[in-house]
Amino acid sequence: MAESLKPLTILILYTTIYRTGGPKFKRAARTMELEKAKQFPNHTIINRAVESKDEFLQEIENVKKSGSQITEFHFIGHSGVYGIMFGTDKWPEQFSPFEWRNLEIPFTKDGHFYFHACRSGRWFAPFISRTLGVKASGNYWYTTFSLSLKSFKWEGYGKKDSPLYVISCPGKKSHGVFSSVRKYLGMSKAIPMLEFAPTDEKVDASYDSVATLYDDTFDDITVRKDEWDWLTRALGESSDKKILDIGCGNGAFLQKLSSRIGQGTGVDISAGMLEQARKRCKLQPQLSFEKIDGPMLPFADNSFDSVISVLSFRYLDWDPILHEILRVLKPGGQFVVMDMVAAPVKLKEVPSFIKAKIQVFFQRFFQKKYWQALSKMVRDQRWQNMLKYNPMRSEHEMKWFLESRFPGQKTQLINIGWNSRILAFKSGPIHFKEVEKQVYP
Q1: Do 31 and 164 form a contact (C-beta atoms < 8 A)?
Q2: pLDDT of residue 69
Q3: pTM of structure
């Protein structure tokens, strides 16, 4: 059947239990449903609450089975760096980049995906446009509920059944207290969503182009003293153990561990980084490095005593790779993570922040080679381009994910910066092989 003859659908999905605002998301979705029905009388309008990835996928499958195509797909709710959030903060769910790339959504040629969620226009909407080949829109700043689409009008002024919208406008979180005052005085105009169109632009999100710069900077991984000390304590006595390093980069960490472990294997998606790793570790026969594509590990079940991810977990496809990690870990093995996340300094953290800054100040004098290489790397345009396609996770995303999948274990704060910090996590002995039903791989 020609596309023009197929039934057309506008799909509106929203969440109610992840974090706050559920009842208002439902109202906003109902408002959109009524308005779209008037605007597009020949379209089928579907409005559903979805609280999990499975429910989200089921709604897409229902559209496929109906033989219809989607002209507009709207999601109203909360968003993380890698997209829309489901579940609760006690058990969060989020599609990974790998999962998005494997989704088949029956869009029309001019289909449009809208993400009515905080900061969804910064990285996620352009990623979706490139990945799915459709127009995608999201908000750059935080969102709020409003009785008007054009400017902020507090919902408290309306009735419980008044039309309600999710809009983005300046507020306390994004622009400070003064903007919050202007907002509630009715002086804040809504900021239009950012729209992205699919292009043929080739994107290299890997570390290939910066592998040499990275290797020069982290020639000695112990320059990150606090992180190195914590990690070696977390791994404990490992002289006869097999270690898997996911996102091993230039292999500097495994190289430094080589004298105290039985065998080490590093995997990475970057061929350039693996080339550096093999060069630097050619005299350590107990170390090996393999390239992976996607969240699949080319190893047999129960192969490793410990799996680690150092400064790379934020880039991984969390649910799919965790499924693989549990598969290749021996019973009683452990999973250790250390990574950088985004979060502003809290008032109670100011003393720790000042201490960290003092350490950095002295480090510039006593580790000049490292700081010179680091400065050269971060100023390089290739590094800036790489960061553009590899966003940093928010602190709460990583914290909630790890602590929910390994109950009873807590993340630890290792280092703190002005807008970022280093988190560490140790699973303890693991004796289970599944944490949830996996859709992919």
Answers
A1: yes
A2: 97
A3: 0.91
